[in-house]
Amino acid sequence: MRYQVKDCVALVTGANRGIGKAITEGLLARGAAKVYAAVRKLSSVEELIDQYGDRIVPIEIDLEKPATIESAAKTAEDVTLVVNNAGVLRTESPLSQEAVDALNFEMNVNVYGLMRMAQAFAPVLKKNGGGGFVQLNSVASLKSFPDFATYSASKAAAYSITQALKVMLSDEGIQVVSVHPGPIATDMGSQAGLDEVAEPPALVADAIVDALATGKFHAFPDSTAKQIGAAYESFAKSVIEAEMDEG
């Protein structure tokens, strides 16, 4: 299954900054007709509107608030590509006194938010004849890092849900892509202490467009991600991407 972004109508969560903004701009640069910039505060999209005019449509989505997701799905009824980029990070180790609270917060956004997005927008994509559903999962979904282990755990759970969505949505003509960036130059990357090794967020947009166009499930955008992806490739093809019976 393959998907071309030219002339598509897309929705990107967390579109106002960092990776989300780079994805939004990357889709528009490749010919997307319109992008719903899904953010918590509509005013944060003004810079994108100034640059791209009516090709940017601000829409409220807060992954912690299911009502905003349900409302957005009713408004953005012409969407054929959904990119769930928004996520949260807490730098807590498993032994931290704040670890449980951190994991609860991260699971609510990074995992339950993904499920809410899929439940709301899969019917929209199906109604529109299929399309693409892209989830930002991080290399931390494949390898845990002690200083932000709760984030890694939430992204591992999100990756597991994304695998299930791949199987379930393929029959509806919806291509699912799991994106696994390494250190990217964003506020979140800085929070994790990754400034020295971080790479441009535009690489993520490029990887998403390539994965959609070539029918790939996994996307590894930057040099760190590619290194991990190369080591993971055999298992991914033999197990994750293979058709296997349950049980």
Automatic annotation (TrEMBL):
Family note = Belongs to the short-chain dehydrogenases/reductases (SDR) family.
Organism of derivation: Bythopirellula goksoeyrii
GO MF terms here are: enoyl-[acyl-carrier-protein] reductase (NADPH) activity
Concerning InterPro entries, the annotation shows: NAD(P)-bd_dom_sf, SDR_fam
Instruction: Report which superkingdom the organism of origin falls in.
Output: Bacteria
- Major enzyme class: oxidoreductase
Task: List the NCBIfam families hit by this protein, alphabetically.
Answer: PRK08264.1-6 (NF006120)
Task: Please indicate if the UniProt record lists Oxidoreductase as a keyword.
Answer: yes
EC number(s) given by UniProt:
1.3.1.104
Check the record and name the Pfam families matching this protein: adh_short (PF00106)
Q: What is the designated name of this protein?
A: Enoyl-[acyl-carrier-protein] reductase [NADPH] FabL
Keywords assigned: Oxidoreductase
Q: Does the keyword Oxidoreductase apply?
A: yes
Q: Which SUPFAM superfamilies match?
A: NAD(P)-binding Rossmann-fold domains
